[in-house]
Design goal:
The structure is a homodimer of 261-residue chains. The first copy, chain A, contains 11 helices and 8 strands. Chain A has helices at 11-25, 33-46, 53-68, 78-95, 108-126, 138-143, 168-172, 184-192, 207-211, 220-233, 243-259; strands at residues 72-76, 99-101, 147-148, 154-155, 165-166, 176-180, 196-200, 214-216. In chain A, α4 (78-95) links the parallel β1 (72-76) and β2. In chain A, α1 packs antiparallel against α2 (33-46) and α4 (78-95) runs parallel beside α10. The longest helix of chain A has 19 residues, at 108-126. The interface between A and B is medium-sized, with 28 and 28 residues.
Chain lengths: 261, 261
């Protein structure tokens, strides 16, 4: 792929695309990961490739719910790890929760590769300076983040086959789960188990988006950077959160994007 | 990839996705072809995965212009060949025009693979029954379709480097070109050379879509099947074609898709 000029108006999008192409070549991602990424590109284009006001509110609400959870967990699939792995490790370090690798087309090889990938990202993050406004021992906080997923000692009740596999210490016991780019079936089952499911999905009409407790309609890497700010700010949660209303606002943004051309 | 149930509501979309994944593995497509396909999936989803009335009109207009052209050509890239190769060979057989392989990331290997792929598709198509309402010697008509692109004996004036390469007998001398999924720069240059450029693009806001003489906002395989019907029906062209108005109608369809949820 060609080099991306520093001044290119869509530089961030092109860098993400290159990261996904490279990770596919390295075997980190499933066959159809690039297709999923392309769908995301199209939906993000319709959002003007920026985080909307309603998305900011939903990220803040998610931050509050993760902080007040008994057993929060951040679930990541391959695309999420590649696009937002470092940012989500920082978030996990601040709230001290585990990250669980949770992939749709599960193979032992890809689980191992993603595990090693996230562990090496974790090591890099641990050597960074403290995030702005965060006080404490950053290296210890980061290195305390567990990367779960390989244990396969838990089960998601209500699912069958490999998709039911999870970690007992992660998704199984979690009361609040942040799951970017999640499959609709799994999202539905997690909600039915009484968990708070915080979904990141660029399509406000997807089944996951409609099912979730809180839906963040935003690109996952932008979302993760903002989530880090918010978990440090430590906001209160809003028990009155109306997810249908939030989805409606996202739909209107996309619709207006077309009308106003 | 899993087997697709016969009754799946999105069966056609999933079959196309599988074809793109398989062709990528066979080396027919560039790295980013799957990402481009994913973007297409998202836009098609917003069209309800069906051909709109305005798309039908633009396909009919394109049929008329191809028929009345002196030197029509159908330009295909990798994704188009995989998704609509056979249908476009049928169209080329009916109007007796060449097909030119025209790829953005040009390598000799991919040109050879795509050439062989289209030649084998051509052989299969030549053994089919006549298309409905078409009369004549189908096998001869199909086998007379030239698959151009490897000659590299032509140039698109106004472009530099490998993207300027074309076939003298194809794009260089053509007065009317059907170019599904074309790059914006190349579309602009082809229009500036005074050619009639018929573009197929699912995003009515893309540069190609805005630049084209006639823009078909539709999925390429559905478009190609309908185009075959229309070239057999032999419609008259409409010199009053207003492409801006047609694009506006497509934008409204997408916008309404969101509003009506």
């Amino acid at each position: 792929m060609v080099k991306i000029p520093k001044v290119h108006p869509r530089r961030k999008s092109l860098i993400s695309r290159k990261a996904i192409v490279d990770a596919t070549k390295q075997g980190l991602l499933a066959d159809s990961a690039m297709i999923a990424h392309g769908r995301g590109e199209a939906f993000d284009y319709l959002l003007g490739e920026k985080t909307s006001e309603i998305a900011k509110l939903s990220i803040k609400e998610s931050a509050a719910r993760l902080i007040s959870a008994k057993h929060p967990v951040i679930s990541v699939n391959g695309n999420t790890a590649v696009l937002a792995g470092k940012s989500l490790i920082r978030v996990a370090a601040v709230i001290q929760c585990p990250i669980e690798i949770n992939i749709y087309y599960r193979t032992e090889k890809r689980m191992d590769l993603l595990h090693d990938y996230l562990e090496s990202q974790k090591l890099e993050v641990s050597k960074e300076d403290n995030p702005i406004n965060w006080h404490g021992d950053w290296e210890s906080a980061v290195m305390a983040v567990k990367i779960l997923g390989k244990e396969e000692d838990g089960k998601i009740e209500g699912l069958e086959g490999p998709r039911a596999i999870c970690s007992a210490e992660g998704i199984e016991r979690a009361d609040v789960i942040l799951v970017p780019l999640e499959d609709g079936d799994r999202c539905e089952v997690l909600v039915s188990l009484g968990k708070n499911v915080l979904v990141v999905d660029l399509n406000p009409l997807s089944r996951s988006a409609k099912m979730a407790t809180v839906t963040i309609v935003d690109e996952v890497s932008r979302m993760a950077e903002l989530l880090l700010q918010y978990v440090i700010e430590n906001p209160s949660d809003n028990t009155e959160w109306n997810n249908d209303l939030a989805l409606k606002e996202s739909l209107e943004i996309i619709s207006n994007y077309y009308v106003n051309q």
